[in-house]
Amino acid sequence: MIIGIDLGTTNSAVGIWQDGEARLVPNALGDLLTPSAVAIGDDGQVLTGLAARERMVTHPHLSRTVFKRLMGTNAKAKLGRHEFGAEDLSAFVLRSLAADVEAFCGERPERAVITVPAYFNDKQRKATRRAGELAGLKVERLVNEPTAAALAYGIHRLGEENPFLVFDLGGGTFDVSIVEIFDGIIEVRSSSGDNRLGGEDFNEAVVALALQKIGGRDWKAIADPRLRAVLGAAAERTRRALTDAPEAPFSFVWLDERFEATITEAGFEEAAAPLIARLREPVVRALRDGQVRAEQLSEVVMIGGATRMPIMRKAATRMFGRFPANRIHPDHAVALGAAVQAGLQMRDSALKEVRMTDVCPFTLGVESSERAAGGGFRDGLFSPIIERNTVIPASREQIFGTMQDGQRYVDFRIFQGESRLTAENVLLGKVRIEVPPKRAGDVLVAVRFSYDSSGLLEVDVEVPETGRKEQVVIVDEEAADEKQLAERRAALALLKVHPRDDEMNMAVKARAGRCYENLLGDERHYVGMLMSRLDQAIESQDPRTIERVRAEVAGELDKIEGESFL
Amino acid sequence: MRVTDAWARLGIAPTGEAREVKRAYAAALKAIDVDLDPKAFIELREARDLALQWGGELPEWEREDYDPDAPWAEDEFREEDGGEVPGQGFPIDLGLSGIDPFWGGHRAGGAARPEAVASANRALSEAAARLEALLSAEDASASEVEAAGAALLNACDEASVDDSAEMERWLRQALAQAIPRSDPVFPLADARFGWSGSAFVGGNRHDPDLYDLLDRQDARATVARLRQHGSVDERDALAELTRPGRSRLGWFEFGIARSVRMFLNEAVAANRMIEHDLDPGTLAWWQGYFEGRHLPGAFWSLLLLPVSLTAGLSLFGAIDKDFATIGLTFAAAEAAILVVILLYAELSFRARKRAREQGWWDYGSGKVRLLVLAAMLLPVGAAFAPVGVAASVATGIAAAALGAAALFLTPAPRRTDYDAVESMTAIGFPAAGLVAAATICVAAVMGGTLADGTQLGFPLLILCLIVSRAYPLATGDMANLKRTRARAILAATGLSAAGMLVSLFCFTPALPPVWLLALAPAVVMAQHLATGGTTAAVRLIEWGARAGAILFHIIVGKRLFEDWGRSIVASLLLYLLVYSLIRIAVAWRWAGRAADEPAYF
Q: Does residue A31 carry a catalytic annotation?
C-alpha cells in the first residue's frame, strides 16, 4: 500500500486512497492532523504529535517544532542527551503517521508519497526523501504541496475547463500554482512562491504588536527559548480568536507574572500589511509564467491553515477582484492530494483516466563567466539550463566553451535560483571535468540537466571531443548510500517511542502542564489538582477510569483556556 | 524535432485548434507511463508545444517546395522594413522549442499607458499619468519623481492583480525610456516587483527594457563603488569625466589620459549606461581625443619645442660648447630611447595580435624580440661610454647574453597573462632600480669613482627594466607567477652583478662630469615606463622619478655651470624638452589606435 503524507511545518496529516476516494487517517487521539512536534518525555521516550507540542512550553529544551524550516541543513537540535537533525525529527513524525495507518487499516504501509513546498530545493527534497527512508518508508514520489492541493481539488472537477489558482499559505511557506484541467489531465502550468513566508510570520507580527503594547521591559533582549515558546503559543491563540471577533486578548505568564494586551483586528491588519504585500509578487509571477490573466481564472482555491485569517481573504479578494473559494478544507487538502497521488502511483482503476503533470518551480543552471570589455572576466553569472515552470520530467542540454588558452579543466557549479548573479542563488553542487588544452573557446563541453518527476536533479557533463563524461550526484555530502542509511535507521529505532495507546494520556497531561504554567492563583491551583487526579487515574491502570478522568480533565481545561486546537 | 514530426507524434492532422491538440496530447499521455519512460514524455511534451506554437502552419523550411539554397533571408529582409528575421525561427533546432514568444515585439508600440487600467481604476491611472508627466519633464527634481513613483506603486498595491501586472509592464517601458531621470523610481519598483531577482528567466527573458534598467542599476552601483574603492586611475578618470566643461589634460598630465582611456575601455565599454553619470561634453571631448580628432597637448608641445630651444640658446650663448654637447647627447639618447619604446610597443602589439590569430603565443618571437631590444641598447650604452667604446659594447653583449640565457633556460610558456605582467611590473621596476643603485654604490666604495659606476650602471638599469617588463610578457603564466617573479628578479640581479664586475676590472679613469647627464634620459625613461602600472604605488614611483630627474639635473648643472640659477633654469628647460618629445611621440602613437590595443607604452 502507498500512503500520502503531508509533512507540514506546524501540522502533518496522512491520507490513503481507498474505495475510489482519498481519505485522511485519524491518529491515536482521533484527530486528522498531527502536530509536527517531537519531544523527549520524562521517561526518556520519544513523544510526537500534540503531546510533544504541548511540552514545547513546559520543556523547551526537550521539545522541537518547526524543524521543517531546517530541512536540508546540517543544523542539529539537542533534545536532552540526544542530537537530531531535521531529517531525524521528521522521521519520528513520519513513523507515527505510518503507525496511525497501520492501526487504521491493519496493514503496515511500506511506500509513501510525501509532499514538499514547491520551493524546496534539491537538498531539501533529498533530505525529505531520506527522512522517509529513515522512517522505514520507501518514498515513491515527492509532490509539490500546491500541486497536491490542486489534485485534491481537481479530482472532483475533471469536467471543468478554465484554469484555477491554488493559493497555499501554510505555517512556514507560501506557494501559488496555476492549474488547468482538460480531458482528465491535471496540468500545473506554473508555480511560484516565497519559502520564508507563512503563518509563523503572522504570529511573530502579533507577538511584536503585543509586546509593544505591554512594554515594561526589554523583551527582545531575553533569549530564553521558553519565552519564545510561550509567546508563540499565545500569539497562535490570539490569531485564531481574531478569526471570529474584532478583538482578542493576548496573555501569557512569564516568571509567575501575567502580562496581557488586547489586539484589535485593525491593529493586526496594520502590523501584517508588510507580510500581505509580499503575497502579491509570487501571484503575479505565477500568472505571468502561466500566461493567464486573473480574470480568466475559474476559481481561487485557498488552502493552508493561515488562509483562514480574515485579512487573508480580504487581501485575496482585492487581488483577484472576487471572493476566493473555500470548498475544500484548508488543512486537509494537501494530504488528500498526496493520497490521490498515491492512488495514481498504485495505478488504481478509479484513476485510470487521470494524469497529473507538474512543473519545476525554479530555474536550474550553472555558473559561467563572460569576457569583459577591456580585458578580464565577469565571473559569477548564472546561465539557466532548465528554466522555471518547465514541465517535468525534463531534460535540457547546453553547450559551454573554455575561457582560457590551454585550460586544463572546467569547473561547473550548479545553482538554483532566479537571480542572474550566482551569489544570490543556492549552490546545489559542483563537478570538474578535464578538457584537452587548446585555445580559449575551442573546447566545447555539453551540460545536460535531467529533472525527474519528484523534483530531483541529475547533471551529466560531457566533452564531445574526448568522449569524457562526468556525472554529478548533487551535493549529498552525507551520501545517502543504503548502508549508512540503514545504520542511521537502526540508531533511531533503538530510541524507545512512547506507546501509542498511551498517547492520549500524554497529550492531556502535557496540555495540563502547559496550562499550569500559563495560569496564576486559584486557576493554577485548580489545574494542579486536575493534574494529580489524572496521574492517580493513570496509576490505577484501569482503562475505564483513565478514560473518564481524562475526558473530565480535558473538559475542565477547555473551560479554562478555550478549546484545544491543532 | 520537426513540426511535421510533432503532428505525427500527436497522431492528428495539423490544426490551428488548440483544443484538438490538447485532446490528442491527453490521449497520448494516458498511453505512456511517465515514471518508467520519461523520454517518451519529454518528446510528447515537445510535440505538443510545437503544435501549439505553430498552429496549423508548417514552417517554411519544412514545406515541400522549400529550397534550402534560395537566398530567402536577404530578399525578404529587404522587403520588411521592421528588420524582423522572417519565419520567426531558425532551421536549426536550438532546443528552444517549447518557449512561446510571449513578449515578442511589445516594444514597437511605444509606452502607451494601458487603456484597460485607465477605465477601471482611476486612482491608478492618475498616478501613472503624473509619473509620466514628471518623467518627460526636463526640470523635475529627483524627489518629485521618487514621490510620484512611490504613489503609483502604492496604487498598484491597492489594485487588482491584472491591473497591477499591466501597470508593471508599462512602468518598465516608461522607466527604461526615461533613463536617467527614472533612477530614483527604479529601486522602489524593483523592491515591489522583484525585477532584479528574476531578470533573465521566464516571461522576462526577452524584455529589452528590463535589460536596460538593470544595466543602469549596475552602472550606478559601479560608479558608486569606483568612487569609494576604485584604484587611483579609476577615481581620477571618474573625477575628470564627471567634471563639466573643458578637459584638464594639462602640461604634465599624461596620467589622466591613460586613466580616462582605461576607464572608457573597461568600465564604460562593459556597461554603456555609465555614460549617463558622466558629463556629456567632457565625454565627447575625450572620445574625440582618443579617436585622434584633436591633439591639443601635442600641438602645444610642438609650439613649445622651438621656443624652449631658442630660449635656452639665448640664455647661455649660442655657441656654448658644453651646452651644445649636453643638448646633442641628450637628444640622441632620448631619440634612441623613443625608438626603442615605440619599436618595442609595436613588436609586442604585433606579437600579441599574432598570438590571438594563431591561438598560441609565439615563444620564439618573444625571445628574438628581447635580443633585438638588447642589441638596440648597445649604441645607447656606447654613447654613454666615450672612454672605452669596445669595453662598453662588450658589457652590453655580456648582459644581453646573460638575459637571453636566462630566457632560453625557462620552459615554454602556456599563455600570456596580462595581470601577471602588471604585477611583475610593479615589483620589477623598484627591484631593478635598487639593483642599479647598489651597483653604483659598490663600484664607488670599491675604489672607482662615482662616475665609473654610473657609466655602467645605467645601461644596465635600462636593460634590467626592460627585462623585468619583457620577461613576464614573454613567459607570463598565471600558474607559475611566483616562479616567474623570482626568475625575473634573479635575472636582473645577475645582470647588475655582471655589470659591477666588468666596471671594476675594465674602467678606472674618471669621467668628465658632463657624462653624468646621461643619467637624465635614463631616469626619465624609467619614470615613463613606470606609468604603465595602475596602482597608487606605481604612481608614487612615477612622481618620485620625475622629481628625482629634475633634482639630479639641477645638481649636475651646478657642477657644470657653477651657478645655481642657471642650473635650475637649464634643468627645467631640459625637463620641458624631454617632455615635449615624449608627448609628441605618445600622442602620435595613440592617435587612431584601435580600442582593443594594449596601452602599455
A: no
Q: Residue A121 corresponds to which cell in the numbers above? A: 530545493
Contact: A280, B200; criterion CB under 8 Å: no
Nearest CA in chain B to A438: B359
Which positions in chain A touch B30 (Cβ < 8 Å)? 184, 353, 355
Residue B546, min C-alpha distance to chain A (Å)? 29
Residue B575 confidence class, pLDDT cut points 50, 70, 90: low
Q: CA-to-CA distance for A180 and A3, rounded, in angstroms?
A: 25
Residue of B nearest to A423 (CA): B197
DSSP-assigned states of every residue in B247-285: ----TT-HHHHHHHHHHIIIIIHH-GGGGGGS-HHHHHH
> Which among B558, B385, B375, B539 has a CA at the least distance from the CA of B458?
B385
Determine which of B37, B52, B200 to mutate to test the interface with A (most A C-beta atoms within 10 Å): B200
Distance between CA atoms of residues A133 and A70, nearest Å: 18
Mean pLDDT, residues B386-400: 50
Nearest to B161 among A294, A357, A420 (CB): A294
Q: Which residues of B91-103 are buried (b: 16+ CB within 10 A; e: fewer)?
A: eeeeeebbeeeeb
Please report residues of B whose CB lies closer than 8 A to that of A293.
Answer: 162, 165
Given CB atoms, is A270 within the 8 Å cutoff of chain B? no
- Rounded to the nearest angstrom, the minimum Cα separation between A292 and chain B is 9
Q: What pLDDT, in 10s, does the model give residues B118-170?
A: 555 778 888 888 888 888 887 888 888 899 988 888 888 778 888 888 888 88
β-strand pairing of A247-254 with A257-264: antiparallel
DSSP-assigned states of every residue in A245-273: SSEEEEEEEETTEEEEEEEEHHHHHHHHH
CB contacts, 8 Å: A398 with chain B: 95
Q: What is the grid cell recorded at A295? A: 480574470
Q: Chain B residues with CB inside 8 Å of A415's CB?
A: none
Q: In percent, how much of chain A has pLDDT > 70?
A: 96
Any idea which residue has 582605461 for its cell?
B262
What is the nearest CA distance from B394 to chain A, expressed in angstroms?
A: 40
ipTM, two decimals: 0.84
| Residue that is written with C-alpha cell 533530505 in the block | A127
Catalytic annotation present for A76: no
Q: How far apart are the first and last CA of chain B?
A: 55
Residue-wise pLDDT for B28-78, tens only, equals: 998 888 888 888 999 999 899 888 888 777 777 777 766 666 554 444 433
Report the sign of the C-alpha dihedral through residues A342, A344, A349, A353, in that order: positive
Grade residue A96 by pLDDT with cuts at 50, 70 and 90. Answer: very high
pTM: 0.66
